[in-house]
Amino acid sequence: MSSEEDFSLVVVDTQPSEDSLEGIKAMIAKFKKQHEELLNEQKHIADSKDDMRGRTQQFRDRTIKLTESLKRDKDDYEDQIANEKAKLASLREEEVKLIEQLEKMDAALKEEKAEHDLLKEETEVFTAVPERRVVFKGATGKVDESQFEMESSIVYPMDGGTALITFDEEVVAKKILSSSTHQVQLGEECRITVEARPVRLMMPSLVEIESKPCPRRILISNLPKMDTEFLLNKLEIHFSKTKNGGGEVEDREFLPDSGTVVLTFLSEKFARGLVDKEYHEVNLLSDKKSHRVRVTPFLNGNVTNLKTKMLMCPRTLLLTGIPAVMETDTLQDLLEIHFQKSSNGGGEITAFLYNPLGQKTSALFKSMAEKKEEE
């Protein structure tokens, strides 16, 4: 073959002609495939349509339920509104009644105020609890509430020409008070008129005290009976020494009601260590023998809550309008004799205190017994 010969590529069409049998078969297969795809697509559309129908039905059911729920809520709300309106009407009626009661109470308060003003002229009422050191004795521990009883000492002011009289029986005091004025025969030609009044005292009904250990004080107990000044000197000498765990003492005090001693240090660094040791051997006696004392915390108490109430003494009353017509002792004896006689409505007298005209003094009440009898 020479180099001058030309070459060309001939593309042969392998796809059969539509007019041929092979072409017709190919077309039938193609249409079958397209038909299957259409059927699948139709099935998918039908499934989607059924799904949409189901969802639509669900939405309809939910809509019905929500509508019914809203209707029930509306009915409940209307019932609630009706109930609230009924309550409001009832409260308005109650308000009218309360206003009427307040008006009555206002009138009663005016009467009480008038009586209070009268009582205020007769006596001064002290509501503060007197300062008193509280000594804690016993085991320490966590408790919810501590309670104790105390005996109140009340100073009752007395004007001149008055007398305080305490009967042995309460019924006698009531009989004397039932008649406001009394004629007292002081001699054949001397007679005076005195007035009997009740004695009212303001007593504490609740006292709450918050206590905490003092950082500079200690309480020393288990002490022998000996000269007080000698005892205080010995204790100060012992607890002032560093070797005994103490330091310089600022103050010392003997508590006669409990027989204990309180030492106050200049610094706060000594009391805690002495309390922790608790028991100490101290040379107190002349024979050089040591005596075992106990050191505990000294508690400071602050009143955090105080409630009071007015009580009338059941057996004690006040006599007023007593003129100075004779010697004080003689007049007091004649008054006491008069009110001790049963024929004058009196009875056995426990105590009698007379303050002459022209003087002003105070009577000290140990009122716990009176208070207990009143309760």
Query: Helicity level, as a percent range?
Result: 40-55%
How many individual helices?
6
> What fraction of residues sit in β-strands?
25-35%
The pLDDT mean sits at: 81
Spans of 5+ residues with little confidence (pLDDT < 50)? 120-133, 367-375
Helix and strand sequence? HEEHEEHEEHEEHEEH
3D shape:
elongated
Question: How far do the termini sit from each other?
Answer: 151 Å
Radius of gyration: 52 Å
Q: What is the multimeric organization of the chains shown?
A: single chain
The major pleated sheet works out as: 8 strands, antiparallel
Outline of this structure?
By secondary structure, this protein is an alpha+beta fold. It is built from 6 helices and 10 strands; from the N terminus they run αββαββαββαββαββα. A hairpin with a 4-residue loop joins strand 5 and strand 6.
Characteristic terms for this protein:
alpha+beta; about 40% helix; about 375 residues; 6 helices
